[in-house]
Amino acid sequence: MEQNQFQTDAAALKKTQSAAAVDDTQEIDLLLLFNALRKHILVIIAVALVFALGAGIVVQFFITPLYEATTSTYIVSVSSNSLLDIADLQISSNLGPDYIDIIKSRSFLGAIIDMMDLEYDYDELYEKVEVTNPTDTHIIKITVTDASPYLAKDIADTLTAYSVERIAEIMEVSTPNTYDDAVVAEEPSFPSLTKTVVIAFVLGAVIACGVIIFIAVMDTTVKTAEDIENRCGMVTLTKVYFEGGKKKKHGYGYGYGYGYGYGYGSTSAGEVEKKNEKRGKGGSGK
After folding, report:
1. What is this structure's pTM?
2. What superfamily would CATH give domain 67-180?
3. Are 75 and 178 in contact (CB under 8 A)?
4. Which of 48, 66, 254, 271 to pair with 26, CA 20 to 30 A apart?
């Protein structure tokens, strides 16, 4: 009975030690990863800067900037010349999707192409025009995107003026009121140099950290006494330090044949020659 109890206690103790070893290994692994990142912090920063610089060069010299111009129109369907009522506002809210479809129709955009003698066809102009109706509003916004900020403004203003007149005729409603004309954009809407550089910097840092962590995880070489205990289950009794940094010294001597000796670490060239001379005189080569 006592023997069984002893075996049970021994098994429980072994299990506890194993669990503790696993926890220690996990902590050491995290510490190693942190130290690896800290050790290569300059590499991480350098890679991030290279990514940011490359992104800035691409944005400045290889990507055509695009500019936006936006107009805003207030749409209200008045049933008579009387004051606006709740029914009129409700009807106007429901007309928003109709306005969007009509403005981006082939007849409307085709008329703008002819009026302005644009080099775009319908599909190209369709991609440049965005018509939106903000939620819970009676407002229609027309946004035109183009490589030329002046052309974007002209297209937005012309399309808005044409739409206001034609929609009133087609839908037999009161004429919408344009309260915000387009302006010439001073800064491109795409791409944003600052945003692109910041994103590239972060991306470069993340990639560098990922590569360093991957190399650290795949490295299975033993570097510390703790590695021996965790991986081999053996206790380290002592440590032997090696003084590196000096060149290896070589010597040779003669005995009953040819032999040679090596001197490493802090052994000087004179000591190696003395040992080789003794070996040569003794003739034993030892």
Report:
1. 0.59
2. FepE-like (3.30.1890.10)
3. no
4. 48
